[in-house]
Specification:
The protein folds into three domains: about 160 residues, Rossmann fold (3-Layer(aba) Sandwich); about 170 residues, Winged helix-like DNA-binding domain superfamily/Winged helix DNA-binding domain (Arc Repressor Mutant, subunit A); about 120 residues, Trna Endonuclease, Chain: A, domain 1. Helix content is about 45%, strand content about 15%. The protein is globular and about 75 Å long. It is an alpha/beta fold.
């Protein structure tokens, strides 16, 4: 089944129906659903689908030749190989003269790495032949940096040739409910906390009504696909997977500043910075600074990819039990017991997403939402605010707290927010929001009815 991405599909179909030349660039991290999107779009349309290989130029030419030949001769096994890429592209040109056809080059960075001249060749044929025809060209890639700089960037031979681009993001916590509508909101939130809205991981987890059983069978199982996913992904993307694994492990273990991470990994700060930069580009790590402040000494690192964060939180420490097939016996004590604590940061992310994407009738027009931390000049203690909503203009802010606990939140939480808001900025007006999985006390609900605070439950951020 194909879920979500309706906006992208509709836009691509509208462009396809116009009959003009198109060069669509599709990119995003691995497993996010780019190929599924392209396959869905290509249904019922004549299409030449070429998935480039992480191999030599000649091997890619052979694969391209086969894709073109199979389009013209469905069912054939052996395909003649074109003499060069120019001849192969000429064959595509001839096909496109006869009818509207989709020409997909998936994993384009692999092809460009193997055949250095391919971007220039495509530029030439687009400028002199294809732009006046009816070919629908799709260039797709998982290397975000390559696609942004070597395809979309100003210095790329292909700069200015695209007619549209789609950066495919992970699904939001609401969008991914389409996969398992039978789950209650708590399990939906946990599924998001584990998969991060990556369709491939949602499918591989194979939830059939019971999240715990799905985890034990499809993640905490040495023979399962997801058990080896982080290691396989690092091997696929990086030359030194062991070092990158150490960097991620250091961050997962609590190291948040660049020098702390370098010390834990045992490398110099300058070398560690390179590894951090690559992991940021892959979307595995994130770099955060207190909202409203510039990048500087307060910058910290965290794991941005929910699946990686979940895996590094629960798998390494239980590796012996998993290898011995004993997770069934210890699951409740080793995993289930800590899921609520793990979900705290996930819940904060969901609440920020709610405010930016789904909330109606907010008191201010939001420009951005993030967290903030700093030192209280009176107590000299560190203050951290889960949510700070920054206005597009003006001096009114949303100040929020997120609690993923099975207890009701009381008035003391609102008082704490007021204290923290004063540390953040004394000369502003604040609108207070409290998000709670376990609900709220009657006293706090009464203050909400008086307009002093907005209260939202886990159910609310899914339904409102």
């Amino acid at each position: 089944m194909f879920y979500c991405r309706e906006k992208e599909i509709n836009t691509m179909n509208q462009r396809y129906d116009k009959g003009n030349f198109e060069c669509i660039v599709i990119y995003g991290r691995r497993r996010v659903g780019k190929t599924a999107l392209i396959n869905e779009f290509c249904k019922g349309k004549p299409a030449i689908y070429f998935s480039a290989l992480n191999a030599s130029s000649q091997e890619n030419l052979e694969a391209l030749s086969k894709a073109i030949y199979l389009y013209k001769n469905p069912g054939e096994i052996r395909a003649p190989v074109y003499q060069n890429y120019e001849n192969a592209l000429e064959a595509v040109t001839e096909i496109a003269k006869e009818r509207r056809v989709v020409f997909v080059i998936d994993e384009y960075p692999y092809l460009a790495k193997a055949e250095k001249s391919i971007s220039s060749r495509l530029q030439h044929v687009i400028d002199h032949v294809w732009q006046n025809g009816q070919l629908f060209l799709i260039l797709c890639g998982s290397s975000m940096t390559f696609m942004e700089y070597q395809v979309l960037g100003y210095e790329s031979p292909l700069y200015g040739r695209r007619t549209a681009q789609f950066k495919i993001q992970a699904l939001t916590y609401r969008e991914m409910t389409a996969f398992h509508q039978e789950l209650d909101v708590e399990d939906q939130a946990l599924l998001y906390g584990i998969t991060g809205g990556i369709p491939h991981y949602i499918n591989k987890l194979e939830v059939e009504g019971d999240m715990d059983e799905a985890l034990k069978e499809h993640l905490f199982n040495a023979s399962s696909y997801l058990f080896e996913e982080p290691e396989n992904l690092l091997k696929q993307e990086l030359r030194e997977p062991a070092v990158y694994n150490s960097v991620i492990s250091a961050v997962a273990g609590g190291a948040s500043r660049a020098n702390e991470i370098a010390t834990k990994v045992g490398v110099e700060s300058g070398i560690c910075a390179k590894y951090l930069r690559v992991l940021l580009e892959l979307g595995i790590l994130k770099k955060e600074t207190p909202v409203t402040e510039k990048t500087g000494k307060k910058t910290i690192y965290g794991i941005d990819d929910n699946f990686f964060r979940f895996w590094y939180r629960f798998v390494p420490g239980n590796m012996s039990a998993i290898s011995a097939g004993r997770m069934e016996q210890i699951y409740d004590r080793a995993v289930r017991k800590y899921l609520s604590d793990y979900m705290g940061l996930v819940f904060e992310k969901m609440c920020r997403e709610y405010l930016l994407r789904y909330a109606q009738d907010l008191p201010i027009l939001l420009g951005e939402v993030g967290q903030w931390w700093g030192t209280d000049p009176k107590t000299h203690k560190e203050v951290q605010i889960d949510i700070v909503g920054v206005p597009v203009e003006g001096r009114e802010y949303i100040i929020g707290s997120c609690k993923y606990k099975n207890v009701q939140i009381g008035v003391d939480e609102l008082e704490l927010l007021r204290q923290y808001a004063a540390v953040f900025n004394r000369g502003c007006r604040f609108h207070y929001f409290i998000f709670s999985k376990g609900g709220f006390t009657q006293s706090l609900q009464e203050l909400s009815r008086q307009g002093e605070v907005t209260l939202l439950t886990l159910e609310d951020i899914y339904r409102r």
